[in-house]
Amino acid sequence: MPYQIQSRCAACQQGDIFLIGDWTRYYGVYACATCHKLVNIAVTEGTCPGCGVRPAVADYYDYAASIPYLGGQSPHKLAPGPDCLRCGQATLTFENQAHLNMGSVVHNEADAKTTWGMDYMEKAIFMNSAVPVMQEFNLNPAKVFAYFHLHLPDAPLVTRRVSYPIYLDIRTHLMTKRLMQPDQFQ
User: Fold this and answer.
1) CB atoms closer than 10 angstroms to residue 138
2) Within a 10 A sphere around the Cβ of 136, how many other Cβ atoms?
3) Residue 158: enclosing H or E segment and its boundaries?
4) Does residue 82 have a cis peptide bond before it, meaning omega lies within 30 degrees of 0?
5) What percent of the chain has pLDDT over 70?
6) How far apart are CA 166 and CA 129, in angstroms?
7) Alpha-carbon distance 68 to 25, whole Å?
8) Domain boundaries, the chain
9) Exposed, middle or buried, 99 (CB in 10 Å: 0-12/13-18/19+)?
10) Segment 134-183, tens digit of pLDDT
11) Rounded-to-10 torsion of CA 127, 133, 136, 141
């Protein structure tokens, strides 16, 4: 993780490429009405890279139920994406194009710690996607969140949704770590 995602409109065939899963670098995916694009908003700048607008926490797109795993796999019917920002004639669909190394998240402790105490879409989806893995294997949430350099939330997160691709990646990663150190997350 993260994943590179391609959006596509069935009507105009236009789309955008963005990343999901890298909560240390991005607040989330923003549907910018000014730029007519889906864009990542970097934690360092906090603004749309095209027009400079600063989205509020509630303005980010909750993609968790809309993006499939590689090859279009999903355990449930995917939720429709937002309306096309270019033509408005159809909803966007998504294709997971690339899986990037999770090391970009796991080994980014300094950037992760700058986000402690902050609640935003990308981090909430990542945290929510870790919960079923912790429950399935009876892992200690404090140890799992410490491993990912996440603070334990003290309030409800901005979303409760789980992203299937992010869940699968967290599950695979933690199970691989447990093979090497069986008690690491107990």
Assistant:
1) 8
2) 11
3) none
4) no
5) 99
6) 6
7) 22
8) 3-178
9) middle
10) 999 999 999 999 999 999 888 899 999 999 999 999 999 999 999 999 99
11) -50
Query: What does DSSP assign to residue 91?
Result: B
Q: Which two tokens stand for residue 162?
A: 């789980």
User: In angstroms, what is the C-alpha Rg of the chain?
Assistant: 16
Residue 88 C-alpha from the chain's centroid: 25
pTM of the entire predicted model: 0.95
CB contact set of 10 (below 8 Å; sequence gap of 6+) = 90, 93
Number of CB atoms found within 10 A of residue 80's CB: 12
Cα distance between residue 22 and residue 37, in whole Å: 19
Q: Exposure of 14 by Cβ count < 10 A (0-12 exposed, 13-18 middle, 19+ buried)?
A: middle
To the nearest 10°, the Cα dihedral for 52, 24, 120, 138? 170
Q: Are 9 and 28 in contact (CB under 8 A)?
A: no
